[in-house]
Amino acid sequence: MSRIQSRFATLRARSRRALIPYIMAGDPYADATVDIMLAMAQAGADVIELGVPFSDPMADGPVIQKVGERALARGIALPQILAMVRDFRARDAATPIVLMGYANPVERYGTERFIADAADAGIDGVLIVDYPPEESEAFAQGLRARGLDLIFLLAPTSTDERMKRVGRLASGYVYYVSLKGVTGAGHFDIASVAAAVPRIRRHVDLPVGVGFGIRDGRTARAVAEVADAVVIGTALVQRLESQSRDNVALAAGEFIASIRAAMDA
After folding, report:
1. How do residues 209-243 score in pLDDT, each as one tens digit?
2. Nearest 5°: phi and psi at 39?
3. Which sequence spans correspond to the domains of the chain?
4. Could you give the angle at the alpha carbon of 175 between the alpha carbons of 9 and 8, nearest 5°?
5. Alpha carbons 65 and 45: distance in angstroms, whole number
6. Catalytic positions, written as ranges
7. Is the overall model pTM greater than 0.85, yes or no?
8. What is the rounded CA–CA span in Å between residue 225 and residue 228?
9. Superfamily of 3-264 according to CATH
10. Which positions ≥6 away from 98 have C-beta within 8 Å?
11. Which among 88, 95, 112, 161 could disulfide-bond with 41, CB atoms 3.0 to 4.6 Å apart, if both were Cys?
């Protein structure tokens, strides 16, 4: 059982929902990522999604695009990110880490090398936005062989057949994109999410996380009532980009604690 699967099993036994924050590796300060991750884990994050910056992030809104550009300008790439994860693992052996990004950085690094190095660093799961399930069987097999989960996105436009394909290949959890658009969009509709999650569960026997458009405790709590996990990224990234280096980890922890409290209320 992977660390992700174990974490969801523990939460299920306690009738709790997972809180999954997303940050971009290397932003807002190249040397602050590990401190931010530790603060979030201590504040109640159950899984941490760590963004891999890419120059053409098709699914990301302007906020995440901007932080990705800043991270790239600082020289942040997979070798630096894996080093961050190794540093985190030296101080936190329990909190699952998912790398979230795009195919190009992985393929430039070398797929087999990436899988081996990610496993050795302590990564638990991988979400590659532009890897469709039809083209991911070999990648999924390679990850499974090293104990890593492959996580897929599902969207309001996903067909039943696509969901079935994802259900056969995915592990860990699936990430439902709650709206037709990019990260950070504001038109969140909890009614449509509440209708979509049961449909996904008919085809996918995994926890369902919901993200895109979740900005505060109110929306996080609403999602927690219908899904297995709440994924929050843009609102967190926006909060951190205005913080000083000395305060950024504290700010991350306070924000995650507030979301956790709202979900548990």
Report:
1. 999 889 999 999 999 999 999 999 999 999 999 99
2. -65, -40
3. 3-264
4. 5
5. 23
6. 49, 60
7. yes
8. 8
9. Aldolase class I (3.20.20.70)
10. 4, 20, 47, 48, 49, 50, 123, 124, 125, 126, 127, 149, 151, 172
11. 95
